[in-house]
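User: I'm putting together notes for a lab meeting next week and I want to include a structural view of one of the chains we've been expressing. I don't have a solved structure, so I'd like a prediction I can at least talk through. The sequence is below, exactly as it appears in our construct file.
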Amino acid sequence: MNDIVGVLIGIGPLVGALLWSGRQDWLRRRADHVRADISAAANRVLGGESVLSVHVEPRVAWRSGRVHIRAPGGYEFLIASVSGAVIARLPAHYELVVDPRMSTPVLVKRVLMVITPAVAPARSAAAVARESGGVVRMAWMQPLPPPRVDHHDRVVADTDREMVRLTEIAQDRMRALTWDFGEVEVEQVVRFGGLATELAVEAHAWDADLIGLAAPARPTFRHHLRAWYLARTVTVPLVLLPIQRPDGGGRRRESTVLPAFR
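Assistant: Thanks for the context. Below is the predicted structure for the 262-residue chain, given as structure tokens.
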């Protein structure tokens, strides 16, 4: 028995190293497949090969994989041309990075900013739309309210009246947020019902290019899990707002990072 334990202890590090190496090889092969898929999508939009460059960093334990798209000076318009197709092809656990020294920001014309009864990251949504001259639609979404009753359980307002009251409150709060958008065009809408259902309906009806879901500055696992679930109900890329941008420090800043859920 002791001999068996000794053998297992002896080969344990070797097995671990082999498993780790196999995992790294799989991630690199996955990155190669992503690069080929993104490049093919870009080439279909542009009608063939171009000077556009696609580079993919594999996923690692502490961050998602990254798809870098670049174009030489004078050819920045290629980024705008393929951005929609690239975002649509981003797989789960990958984010899009655009280098400011070689290209223009990702073209997102219609940003649907989902607001639940919480703080809305209006400035972050405005920044995404401002970079491409787009428009933001603030969509205040909350469950269908029950009738309002007094302390004697007597109905003082039915569901329809409660919806009217809550709509007025939501509109007042959204009007207060419009100051954070500056010159960006802003629209407002209030929806009642299940978040996933109403989000899918609104994104399709408004033909949104990107959905921004309100979240804290440091989203928890619960926020990522909800975003992942909601992203499965829509065909539009979804991001958590505010978007976290890399710090300056010793590294160069990326212009646009879209950790899109698909």
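A couple of points you could mention at the meeting. The chain is about 40% helix and 20% strand. Confidence is low (pLDDT under 50) at residues 100-105, 245-259.

User: Perfect, that's what I needed.
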